[in-house]
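Notes from the 1:1 (GR / supervisor)

We went over the backlog. Supervisor wanted to see one worked example end to end before approving the batch request, so GR pasted a single chain during the call. The sequence is below; no edits were made to it. Supervisor asked that the structure be written out right there so they could see what the output format looks like.
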Amino acid sequence: MRCFTYGPPRGAGKSTEKTYTPCSPTKQCLITFLCEEQFMKYSDIADVVGIDASTACRNYHDMNITRDPYKHAKPGRGRPKKVSTQELCEMVRGIDDGSIRDGADAGRTVRPQVPDCTVQQTLEQAGLHGHVRCKKPHLTNNNLRGQVEFGLKMLDLDKEE
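Structure output shown during the call:
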């Protein structure tokens, strides 16, 4: 058995939802102009533009952060990039002037904790195409000495047999 209620639903008289209208770059520039040049309040701006006052306030503050209506004030959703644009420019500049030989060297000097394939993908986005080489271990004198000693021991074992 179902129970039906008659009459307006609860809270029908008041709207508690906030309306956030996405504003175009033209509206954002108009909001900034009306606020800074005409010294209008957000409620007056909302009446002129045809949006909610809180939306006008939010868009004005977003424009104050970037000063560019086509740029977003807040970072986008998703995972942050492992290699920033500044580091990418540093890699490209180093490859162009010859201080960095290749992508593997760029990855080791600028961001050593980033994998080679990620460095390759970011360099491809910058217009530099190449292949991924495996990182070779850096051989120190101790490593070389140990390899020689191991080889001599193996030679001695072969002679004893």
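Supervisor's comment: The first helix runs from residue 25 to 36.
Batch request approved.
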